[in-house]
Design a protein that fits this description.
The complex is a heterodimer of chains A (127) and B (629).
Chain A lengths: L5 H14 L1 H4 L4 E6 L2 H6 L1 H15 L4 E6 L11 E5 L5 E3 L4 H13 L8 E4 L6
Parallel strand pairs in A: 1-2
Antiparallel strand pairs in A: 1-3, 3-4, 4-5
Helix pairs in contact in A: 4-5
Chain B lengths: L6 E6 L2 H5 L2 H14 L6 E6 L11 E4 L3 E3 L4 H13 L25 H4 L17 H6 L4 H9 L2 H11 L11 H10 L6 E6 L8 H8 L1 H15 L3 E7 L3 H16 L15 E7 L8 H9 L22 E5 H13 L1 H5 L9 E8 L5 E6 L4 H8 L9 E6 L5 E4 L9 H6 L8 E6 L4 H15 L5 H18 L7 H15 L3 H5 L2 H19 L12 E5 L9 H5 L5 E2 L7 E2 L9 H5 L7 E5 L1 H5 L9 H8 L5
Parallel strand pairs in B: 1-2, 5-6, 5-8, 6-7, 9-13
Antiparallel strand pairs in B: 1-3, 3-4, 9-10, 11-12, 11-13, 14-17, 15-16
The chains are: A alpha+beta (127), B alpha/beta (629).
Chain lengths: 127, 629
């Protein structure tokens, strides 16, 4: 490999940093796919795949992608929760990969809640 | 291939976790991730030491920041299915604070991590130490870029002077001052040495830096080389650190490949090479002139200073020797500025210090804290206090060259001056916590035994002085102490300090002097009453079976390795003191609700009723139980 200059070094840094974004922890929000047994049976895996494809396409690094257990309303699965900083969490119900992609583009990127798919806004109170 | 990574598992592979089976955990994780089809979404990263060694093998799950400890391969299948597939973090693998029931899932909530401030260890657990691009991604090698593109060597020296950085290896000499002296020498070539000859029992700060972030040391060395006008650096590391050496070799090769070491670094005229020299583990090699002799291939003995190595060092040439931790501070100081650095810490001690927190402490591990933090915060908040609610007795800082600091000084700040005033020293950062069951005479004896073994023998005061100290301490702990022993120890210790040439001899009496200073009554108890208050010194203790409690269960009889206990079922057991080797196994097997075995010392020994004849428990009770009215 040819010897680096200072500019090359900065370029390597910027490229490598993209690889490490999971470790930096600078997020403006997160997407949670509910993956209880009910969720998985209803197709949560496909939702995960669809969302991860979108993350990759957009090279999005400021939204945390995570999974969690059953949200409690098994008949409405597959579900996801979108939490954007400064806004109440939004739960979406009965998703398909295509719906998930729309949520990704319109809500997570575009900032607009897709009311048709929404189960509810806000969270249960923790007693 | 599409990038689908959503979780990273940062598995600690520092020496502690490595020994605990971290690589078996990694293999198992990879196997299970493959099984669940998560191989592309969940990646496993082998990191350097995470610091919370007492919990190893361990990992941190990112981006959720969940901490799992005490991992075993049998847990992995369940963990992968529950957490990484179904998204339900597994509670039973999380950290539970001592004396509590609920686990703390997030690493950021665990007190051990909360109070720390990471400068040197900024990359620990976040980068893969064997990947240079991970280091670069975290602004690695930007400091050397800045130095080479916009600073003169003298600017670099001044910046380090201004930062107030002091050597982290023991004595705390201002690093900038050392560089300044070397940079002013006209003789060439000049050499730079990174001292990683870490020999204190229980200390592993420098090893962890090399293992978890080797490039930060390379970058620090390159900057130092530029500042003093040297093109050759050596890393002197003990051969007992195979993992550190391996990772350092990989790092040097990668840096060479990227043109960050070698000729014309980053396209400039500056050249710098680094070689690793392995030492074979003599404690005295931590002393700079001995270390130089060792690299030269000579017997590692110290020599008189001046001339200082910065004037006349390796092969008679100007040489700067800096500790590994000192060097790892350098890139950050250059990148963020001397003013930023000098705002952290106290008036005279700037920045942070790494300590290895070991001994009688709940959270064993490696910590980095700002200078000026109190011992109490370290022991009780980060360290989580003393196991089994025992009382804190003292903490030994600075390894065998340091001293014991007692409970009354728990609120004093940790900085170079305060520790010295307390009769100890910063040293390289070992911190051994002792509880009420620790005998200070025994501790002093242990450390003197160590330094006596490690003394190179050049100075009479160190060689024979440590012999004499050890002899008297051994006598005292054997119950053969005499009046005047404490005064003799003090006088001898002071003379060894004054008359020895190098740091080893000058500091080896510290454990003796500090324990006499703070725990004189314990020495007196050993000498005058033949009593060991902590019940440690074997010649001064006896085990005894309380006839009022013994139920005659035979457990201790079966366990005793010297067949010193006689008795029959349901008869009170009796220990034959002549045969007893005082191993204490009988006390461990005696059921807690019975607790019939006592460990006694001093006057108590004479006050005990020693049974000679076997008697049944029933009969004893009849004779001794107070009559009911």
């Amino acid at each position: 490999m040819p010897k680096l200059t200072i500019d090359d070094l900065k370029k390597i840094r910027d490229d490598s940093r993209k690889e490490l974004y999971l470790r930096e922890g600078n997020y403006r929000g997160k997407v949670i796919v509910h993956m209880g047994t009910c969720g998985i049976a209803a197709g949560a895996r496909e939702i995960v795949n669809a969302l991860l494809d979108e993350f990759d396409k957009r090279k999005l690094t400021d939204i945390m992608f995570t999974t969690s257990g059953c949200a409690g309303l098994c008949s409405e699965e597959p579900m996801i929760t979108v939490e954007i900083e400064g806004a109440a969490p939004v739960k979406y119900r009965k998703l398909t990969p295509d719906k998930a992609k729309r949520i990704f583009n319109e809500h997570i990127i575009g900032g607009k809640v897709i009311t048709d798919f929404v189960l509810g806004v806000g969270s249960e109170r923790v007693g | 291939m599409a990038e689908k990574k959503r979780i990273e598992l940062m598995v600690c592979t520092g020496t502690g976790c490595f020994a605990g089976g971290a690589y078996q955990i990694i293999d198992e994780l990879k196997k299970e991730l493959e099984l669940f089809g998560l191989k592309e979404e969940v990646t496993v990263v082998a990191t350097g030491c995470n610091g919370f060694c007492g919990q190893g093998p361990l990992m941190v799950v990112l981006p959720d920041n969940i901490f799992y400890g005490w991992l075993e391969t049998k847990d992995i299948h369940h963990l992968v299915e529950e957490h990484f597939l179904k998204g339900r973090p597994v509670k039973k693998l999380m950290f539970i604070p001592p004396e509590q029931k609920e686990p703390l899932p997030l690493i950021s909530d665990i007190p051990f991590f909360k109070k720390q401030l990471l400068i040197v260890l900024r990359n620990k657990g976040i980068i893969d130490p064997e990947k240079i691009t991970d280091y670069i991604a975290r602004d690695g090698y930007l400091a050397i870029s800045k130095v080479l593109s916009s600073m003169n060597p003298i600017d670099v020296v001044n910046e380090i002077l201004k930062s107030g950085l002091r050597g982290r290896g023991g004595a705390g000499f201002p690093t900038g001052r050392k560089w300044q002296v070397a940079s002013q020498q006209s003789k060439s070539p000049k050499y730079l040495i990174a001292n990683c000859d870490e020999g204190d029992p229980g200390a592993y700060m420098d090893r962890s830096v090399l293992e978890s972030d080797p490039h930060s040391v390379i970058e620090g060395m390159t900057i130092a080389g530029y500042a003093i006008g040297s093109t050759n650096g050596f890393i002197y590391v003990r051969t007992e650190y195979p993992l550190a050496i391996k990772r350092m070799r990989i790092a040097i090769e990668q840096a060479q490949e990227y043109g960050l070491l070698g000729k014309n670094i980053l396209g400039t005229n500056f050249n710098f090479e680094i070689e690793i020299r392995e030492g074979s583990g003599a404690f005295v090699c931590g002393e700079e002139t001995s270390l130089i002799h060792s690299i030269e291939g000579n017997i590692p003995e110290p020599r008189q200073r001046p001339p200082f190595p910065a004037q006349e060092g390796l092969w008679g040439c100007p040489t700067v020797i800096n500790n590994v931790e000192t060097l790892a501070n350098v890139p950050v100081i250059i990148s963020r500025g001397a003013d930023w650095f000098s705002n952290i810490g106290t008036e005279t001690s700037k920045g942070t210090k790494i300590f290895s927190l070991v001994g009688k402490i709940n959270n064993t591990g490696l910590i980095e804290v700002p200078m000026g933090i109190t011992l109490r915060e370290v022991v009780y908040e980060i360290g989580g206090g003393i196991p089994k609610d025992k009382k804190f007795k003292a903490v030994q800082t600075g390894g065998p060259s340091g001293g014991c600091i007692p409970a009354e000084l728990l609120d004093s700040p940790i900085d170079f001056e305060s520790l010295q005033k307390a009769g100890s020293m910063m040293g390289s950062g070992g911190m051994i916590v002792m509880d009420e069951d620790t005998c200070v005479v025994d501790v002093a004896k242990f450390f003197i035994q160590f330094t006596n073994d490690e003394s190179c023998g050049k100075c009479v005061s160190c060689r024979d002085g440590s012999d004499a100290l050890l002899e008297v301490l051994t006598r005292i702990s054997n119950g053969e102490g005499m009046d005047g022993d404490v005064e003799f120890l003090t006088e001898l210790a002071e003379s060894v300090k004054d008359a020895s040439m190098c740091g080893l001899g000058q500091t080896l009496p510290n454990p003796v002097l500090s324990t006499i200073r703070y725990f004189k009554e314990e020495y007196e108890a050993h000498i005058k009453e033949k009593r060991c208050p902590a019940l440690v010194c074997r010649n001064l203790i006896e085990y005894y079976i309380d006839p009022n409690k013994c139920v005659g269960c035979l457990l201790c009889i079966k366990t005793c390795p010297t067949e010193a206990i006689k008795g029959e079922s349901k008869h009170i057991h009796i220990i034959d003191q002549e045969k007893c080797s005082k191993c204490g196994q009988c006390m461990e097997v005696c059921p807690p609700k019975i607790s019939a075995i006592l460990k006694i010392t001093g006057k108590d020994i004479n006050n005990m009723v020693q049974l000679t004849e076997l008697i049944s428990c029933k009969e004893w009770k009849k004779e001794h139980e107070p009559a009911h009215s």
